[in-house]
Structures are given as C-alpha cells and as structure tokens.
Structure of SKAP1 protein:
Amino acid sequence: WEEVTPKPVQDKGSILKQGYLEKRSREHSFFGSEWQKRWCVLNRRTFYYYANEKSKQVKGSFSIEQYSARLAFHLRKDSRKKCCFELLCPGKRSYEFTAPSPAEAEDWVDQIQFLVKDLSSLTIPCDKEDEEEPYNDVDSSGSVNTASHNTTLNQDELNIEREEEDIYEVLPGKQTNKQ
C-alpha cells in the first residue's frame, strides 16, 4: 500500500545543493554518536536536513538568511577535520557539519556564502543612494553670490549640450522611429 510516487517536502526546482553531511548533534548522549549522518538540502532560502535521502519527515530546517558559512577544521581531531564547516548567525544557533570530502565542504560553504550575499543584496538597496552623492557635492560647492549673474548663460549652455546629446542618441539606427 506504499505510494507509487513519493513527493518530497521541498520543491526540487529550487534546490541549489543536496547531499549527505554529518551533523553534530547538540544533545548527544554518552552512548550516542556526536556526529549523525543527515541528508541535507539547500534551496534559495532554507537549509533542511532529513534522517536519510528517502525520508519525507524533515528533522530540522532554518532560514539561511543572516547566516555565514566557513570551513572549521577545529571541529574534529580525526582525519576528516578538513571536511568540516560551520554555519553561524549572531544570536541564533550555530550548526556544525562534516562533508564527505574537503572539496565538498568548500562547495557547501561557497554555495551558502553566495546565497546569503544574494539575499542580502535583495533586501538592502544601497546603489541608489551612492549615485546621488556626487550631485549634492556639485550643488553645494559653487557659492551662490558669484553664480547668480551667470545663471542664464549656464542654462543656455546646458540646453545646447542636451540638444547635441539627443542628436547623437537618435543616429544609431533609430531615425525611422522618431521621424
């Protein structure tokens, strides 16, 4: 009576990276292993982990936003210490993982850093403010007294420049539309 097509919890289309990692458990018992194998899935916003690849039950998940990822060789003392990385976020739980290889660990770190950078650039539009800075400087640097009798002349010069610019803009193959 098993379902023919098991539907995974997450949308496969948005998965950036997935694979087995060993996750360090927070409350490991004296008998239990400190590192538990987990099927981990990273999509555009969230990091999920499952008991195994076939499991539909999410063991845990967290929003990747605000987290930073870095290699962490100090987490283990054994031969796999170069496979370790951690996810950190101020004021939130940190997560520690062991990848199957040092290259895989680096790839997880790269993917997460890239993703977090992408997410933060969407939420903080800082480009617009930077563009306006130079204009303010130009306005404030000219003293008002000396500029006042030149305003009409400057205005005419500006208009001439603008007309020339328009002529240049029209030339490259767009005359037919405007005329």
